Amino acid sequence: MTTDIVTPENADQVRDMVAWAVDSQAPLNVQGHGSKAGLGRAVNIGTTLDLSRLSGITEYSAPELVLTAQAGTPMTDIHAALADAGQHLAFEPPDLTGLLGGDPGRGTLGGLVATNLAGPRRVQVGAARDHFLGCQAVGARGEIFKAGGKVVKNVTGFDLCKLLAGSYGTLAVMTELTLKVLPAPEDTRTVLVLGASDADAARCMSRALTSSHEVSGAAHMPAAAASACEAEAVSSRGTSVTLIRVEGPGPSVEYRAKALCRELADFGETVEVGSGESRLAWAAVRDVQPLTEPLDRPVWRVSVAPTEGPGVVDALRRQSGSVDCLYDWGGGLVWLSLENGDVAGQAERVRNAVAHAGGGHATLVRAAADVRAAVPVFHPQPEPLAALSRRLKDNFDPARVLNPGRMAEGL
Amino acid sequence: MKMPAPDQGTIARRSEIVEALRRIVPGEGVIVDEDELQAYECDGLTAYKQLPLVVVLPETTEQVSRVMRWCHENNVKIVPRGAGTSLSGGSFPLADAVTIGLGKFNKILDVDFDNRTVVAQPGVTNLAITSAVAHEGFYYAPDPSSQIACSIGGNVAENAGGVHCLKYGLTTNNLLGLEMVLPDGEVVRLGGKHLDSGGYDLMGIVTGSEGMLGVITELTVRILKSPETAKAVLMGFPSNEQAGDCVADIIGNGIIPAGLEMMDKPAIRAAEDFVHANYPLDVEALLICELDGPAAEVEHLIERVEQIAKDNGATELRISRDDAERATFWAGRKAAFPAVGRISPDYLCMDGTIPRKALPEVLRRMREMSDKYGLRVANVFHAGDGNLHPLILFDANQPDELEKAEAFGADILTMCVEVGGVLTGEHGVGIEKRDLMPVMFGEDDIKQQQRIKCAFDPDHLVNPGKVYPTLHRCAELGKLHVTGGRLPFPDIPRF
């Protein structure tokens, strides 16, 4: 169908657009660069509200640990400004353009927070939600409002920002966001443990994360994923690779990496790699690069208790043919690449495995649009929670003009 | 501060309500005698007192659910209560509401070191979580100063912080799962031992909702391995400005300390007189900077902090040689509230957050206000994250002094908002700061927050009278006010 694209330049114009949408009962496809259009439930919406002209950092004071930028600011601009001041977004925002298709580096700050993504450092510092301090937004009655604050510690009123993070633009249109930023680590070391089975790797990651070495990343690539990894430090090993990361001042990371090599030696041969190689390897984990190809395979993102990750994969391997996977978050985040085919049946198997593992959630991250329209992309909620989510949508967007159906039918 | 007028109809139905509650919670679990109810007449905000209609102490989630369902069906308000340590009146009772005390939910249900989680009932104290895992070298990071008494369920309701939250986050960043009873009695589970959720972040909005969205009956928190070592630096400065600059430079140099606390001269004096921590008395401001982590890192960073302190003109500089000395550095800071309690019959503890760069201006204006009101003020400050705790000294037995102290406090918080900060950093709004909400939030801002309330509790039966000066009727909030047939914006670029 034809799409009308409107590109407002300021919050007032966004407000006018939303008011028009309510008036005309014309839903809006709210997006930034559209780099995550393939993420979430597929919907057909006639008018696109493109926020990419709402761009620019409005306030950044490094010692205050706070950055404010317009919603459509490119992530590349944010990363560059922070790097200049020796800081970063600690939750390690992934760039999924490789996995989902699209130009590398595309994506906006608003889109990042609206999808609540986070990379390997999630285990130590949290996700986008944990660093999202405040915003200005336009509600679905055409009103400009603010939520949260511009300081790092604030409990004034309900934490509306938590609700907006990860709501895929279905509750309000964020126009300006304030995030907590942190000093970037001076140095990085990664300890690679070679040849561990998935189950042993889970134990290895658990031991690393329960050590006092302040591990900031614990991931595992089974042999297939490892060989597909674009970081040579990983792909050259010819076997599975478990990655344990420490960050901080030079003398500290040296000491901790040595200690981890000793403490993890009974899981396999250990190898220590330095900053440059570490960065490449963790970027691959963060962006799920080893599972990018083959491009037609559905990719799932499963979150369970860390010790349960390998069990989920085992259960699926017993039921389906080929299962490629990559573990992050100490085993709690399992990326699955499964055979293309009956994705509805696959969804049931994956979600049953999650339930059997004590609960969690499974999101269909990559699939053709018609599949993402038919198969629930996000983990279906028990009815009382689904009803609560619908009541939230009813209260925030009764006319269903903001990204309707993007998360689930009726939301 | 005025609470909504109690509903006389509910009060008249008291014996019927008591009877219904006794059918759900048998034995001693329903408290009706006035002398026993007095234990529940206030929380940590002791300036206000009110006997609850009745107190019920359920022991199971099912009992909480049945109490909530009955109250919902019979249009009776409820007030959830943990340990009753809220400094903002979050569990302040109402004459026409049932207080649901969670004191009997006092068990730790599961400790899972491999997944680094603890599952606990809400009445367990904050410190008890750490105590349950300390033998394996773990701890629970958020550490509000009331941690020996405050309940973990109350921590979730208030999104409690503490000295360590600059590095380790508030409660919301350390919470993984909840079981809660919704206002209509429905029991739901949010999160678990896994991270994040697939849909709306309901756990995120329940955290810090000050008991207004339901009653928490179980929770899962993440625990951390205790740091290998910790050291503290004690620094004295001839001016607040220099101390403030030192804080900015520490963070500007990429160092995130485990704790970074500041005290002004009146607070130093009061603390020193009380605990004799050997604080220098000839300085205007004192900083305590604690670094924790691997020994190699702590040693390295301590040297850098020392240099930064010297560069900013520190006149006093001590580095803890062992844990005993580190504890001495902290002793005065940790005893600051009772220390101030010793030098004044009463005090109010405020809790605003400011951008740190505004600190010198805020302290200067606070001194002017202190002169204007004729009341002394001492300041302790979570300097790392800009969270200010001015303690206003007054005597409630003097006519009008409580009112004057409250007006002084309101002026301070209004100033915090003026300089770009917020009304509360960790204590919550409760009833204490409720009427100041419009200082920080406009009508449309507050309406959006209340839409959450309407999704959870459209009848406003759970913890009414807290956080918001007025609760809009949900039917009114739900209306769509459309602007009416305008053609859109010739001036917006379209493609």
UniProtKB/TrEMBL annotation, chain A:
Keywords on record: FAD, Flavoprotein
Matching PROSITE patterns: FAD_PCMH
Gene3D superfamilies cross-referenced by the UniProt entry: 3.30.465.10
Domain FAD-binding PCMH-type: 1-184
GO-annotated molecular function: catalytic activity; FAD binding
InterPro entries associated with the record: FAD-bd_PCMH, FAD-bd_PCMH-like_sf, FAD-bd_PCMH_sub2, FAD-linked_Oxase-like_C, Oxid_FAD_bind_N
Entry keyword Nuclease: no
A Pfam family matched in the record: FAD_binding_4
Keyword DNA repair included in the entry's annotation: no
Alphabetized SUPFAM superfamilies for the sequence: FAD-binding/transporter-associated domain-like, FAD-linked oxidases, C-terminal domain
PANTHER family referenced in this protein's UniProt entry, alphabetically: D-LACTATE DEHYDROGENASE, GLYCOLATE OXIDASE SUBUNIT GLCE
Xref: NCBIfam families: PRK11282.1 (NF008439)
Name of the protein: Glycolate dehydrogenase, FAD-binding subunit GlcE
Organism whose genome encodes this protein: Caenispirillum salinarum AK4
TrEMBL record, chain B:
This protein's record includes keyword Nucleotide-binding: no
Cofactor annotation: FAD
The keyword Flavoprotein appears for this protein: yes
InterPro entries: FAD-bd_oxidored_4_C, FAD-bd_PCMH, FAD-bd_PCMH-like_sf, FAD-bd_PCMH_sub2, FAD-linked_Oxase-like_C, FAD-linked_OxidoTrans_Type4, Oxid_FAD_bind_N, Vanillyl_alc_oxidase_C-sub2
Domain FAD-binding PCMH-type residues, every copy: 48-226
SUPFAM superfamilies per UniProt: FAD-binding/transporter-associated domain-like, FAD-linked oxidases, C-terminal domain
Pfam family, one: FAD-oxidase_C
Keyword entries, A-Z: FAD, Flavoprotein, Oxidoreductase
MF annotations from Gene Ontology: FAD binding; oxidoreductase activity
Protein name: Glycolate dehydrogenase, subunit GlcD
Species of the source: Caenispirillum salinarum AK4
